[in-house]
Amino acid sequence: MSLVLHLPMRYEDETQLLSLHAASMKPGMVVQVEGVVSDCEVQFRPRRQLMVKLSDGTGMLTMRFLNFYGSQASQMAVGKRLRVRGEMRHGFFGDEMVHPTVRSVEQGAPLPEALTPVYPSGEGLSQTLLRKAIANAMTRIAWQDSLPEHIRESLKLMPFEPAIRLLHNPPSEVDELALAERTHPAWLSVKFDELLAQQLSMKRAQAARRQQGAPALAHAGALTASLLSALPFSLTAAQRRVLAEIRADLSAAFPMQRLLQGDVGSGKTVVAALAAAQAIDCGYQAALMAPTEILAEQHFRKIATWMEPLGVTMAWLTGSLKKRDKDDARARIESGAATLVIGTHALIQQDVEFARLGLVIVDEQHRFGVTQRLTLRNKGVDSVPHQLMMSATPIPRTLAMTYFADLDVSVIDELPPGRTPVVTRLISQDRRDEVVERVHAAAREGRQVYWVCPLIEESEALQLQTATETFERLSASLPDLRVGLVHGRLKPADKQNVMEAFSRGELQLLVATTVIEVGVDVPNASLMVIEHAERFGLSQLHQLRGRVGRGSAASACLLMYQGPLGGVAKERLSIMRETADGFEIARRDLALRGPGEFLGARQSGEAMLRFADLEKDQWLVEKARDLAQQLLTEAPEIATAHLARWLGAKEDYLRV
Ligand code: ADP
Ligand code: MG
Q: Does 597 have pLDDT greater than 70?
């Protein structure tokens, strides 16, 4: 990418010069003044500092430098003329500035006419060097606009060259607020160009994918029909709709790449099972990959109760299997004897080969990196399998239109009937006794309870210790309850035993770390306590809360917190109290954190937009998307030129 697209992050106004007298009236403001040094000395008490006095005939300013080099002291020797920029304060010594920016100047040296750009400089480059390099690049690039004039005009966007020139050298009369907030037409134009490049690159990737062959899984047959009639419930309208979308994709001869979104508890698993049934009906294998062993296990059990009675042969593959069982599973996958394979990351190990893989389903897709999903996709023998990704982290509209523009999206926007909303309460840690009493009461009524222990990011060992201590404390204060403990370090078999005991209702209280965050489904659990809720992220809290409210009993989620709460933590907790709508939570999470963190480093990778702000610039995203579509069909050469300008040789925005 050309250096001219390395745009300032902010500007400094050095176009104005105040007299010291006038500057003295502006305490707290950043001002620029000029004067001659009348005194320069190093003080040692109360601490070592360089004190320089500057005067211009209207007033006197003291400058203080706590860390300084000898060369600085000589630059500011008595008699030197200095131009100084910094925050004006009224201090002990009268008017003063601490660590101002200082330059020696000749008397009458002209002031700059443009605002001074400050560039992002991660590589340790100085601003001066960057400014020079960029100014130099501006004399050399071909300024030709990649978009024709009539398009710029119809969108009311500034043409490329004036926009870029203005951003590097804004005239002093520019609307500084619009510049700072990036709503100035020059910024809008650049942001639009960036978004357009991203849309074009993703749409091209999508088109390239369509060139690859996939097995056309054209008919839903006997298995699908009997599965539908064997289910203990009927599908919701939303489930039927997304299923129809998936089926249409499966019957095409190019790979499906569909994201199935549905809030926690909306019933994605059964949709996945029905998609798998269609693949099996057509003589292919289907694989379902889940991010944790607990979740994979639970899928396996649930789907097995539906599918095994119908004659489907399933295989189970996770890292913790004994070698013999693993070999056995691999052999059945390779021979094609097993048609439905469920497991964890183990499924994407090199030594796993599928006989006829037709469909790959990835649950909680945001937990996996792009490469992990790709590896499973490459397990097709002579064609690419269809891919269904499922996520309970709803992706706000703007993100879906940008980072996921190359995916087709289906949304389950309705919960199965008979759910009761979860009541959420915030409770201070001081009232822990009341919470314990609540747990007791729920258990006496035959309900089950989750108690989630705090996340301790710095140390997994500490997290385990806390979970164990909480387990012991709660067991002691609730001696008549059957209490279990589950955490990430348990042996898989032990983990499984605890989860099963809880599922069967043998345990009444389950103390857990966040291992239970995703997918765990025990409808009789109706109370969730989250300790130190202030340490969790929003989507995590939403996922955890989604573990209750799955049955018909009234459910509650108690968010215990340790005050005093910081601003963001307070905001997060009140969002949790105000809404249970996953989309609303995701939208507000995005606003709180920005897309980089929201998506997680793995998802966004290099693909971050540098200039556009998805929250504020939604309308630009929409315009860019429409134009991208239009260019690709009507003027592909413009699309190519535009991509070349923004991406150069590397297809930055391309995601798989
Ligand atoms: P998620 O979308 O969070 O993965 P699940 O697939 O685990 O949700 O479904 C949550 C619960 O709802 C499960 O117990 C599932 O069997 C049940 N369920 C799914 N679809 C329906 C439906 N149409 N009617 C009633 N219950 C359903
Ligand atoms: Mg699920």
A: no
pLDDT at 70: 78
Q: How far is it, in rounded angstroms, from Cα 467 to Cα 473?
A: 10
Q: Whose CA is nearest to atom 3 of ligand 1?
A: 265
- Residue of 270, 303, 516 to mutate, ligand 1, most atoms within 8 A of C-beta: 270
Task: Give pTM, 2 decimals.
Answer: 0.71
Cα 552 from Cα 526, distance rounded (Å): 9
> Rounded to the nearest whole angstrom, what is the distance from the C-alpha of residue 205 to the centroid of ligand 1?
34
Is there a contact between 98 and 86 (Cβ–Cβ < 8 Å)?
A: yes
* Atom number, ligand 1, closest to the C-alpha of residue 363: 4
| pLDDT value of residue 474 | 95
Residue 480 identity: D
Query: Binning pLDDT at 50, 70 and 90, where does residue 601 land?
Result: very low
CA dist 57 and 400 (Å) reads 61
Q: Is 551 helix (H, G, I), strand (E, B) or coil?
A: coil
Ligand lying nearest the CA atom of residue 550: 1
Tokens of 373: 């999903």
Residue 304's Cβ-count burial label (10 Å; 0-12, 13-18, 19+) is middle
Residue with tokens 């996945």: 272
Which atom of ligand 1 is the closest one to the Cα of 272?
Answer: 6
- Residue from 227, 233, 261 whose mutation best tests the ligand 1 pocket (most atoms within 8 A of CB): 233
> What is the distance in A from the centroid of ligand 1 to the CA of 420?
14
Judged on CB neighbours under 10 Å (0-12, 13-18, 19+), 485 is buried
Give residue 369's pLDDT band: very low, low, confident or very high (50, 70, 90).
low
Query: Looking at ligand 1, which atom is closest to the CA of residue 546?
Result: 3
Burial of 43 (0-12, 13-18, 19+ CB in 10 A): exposed
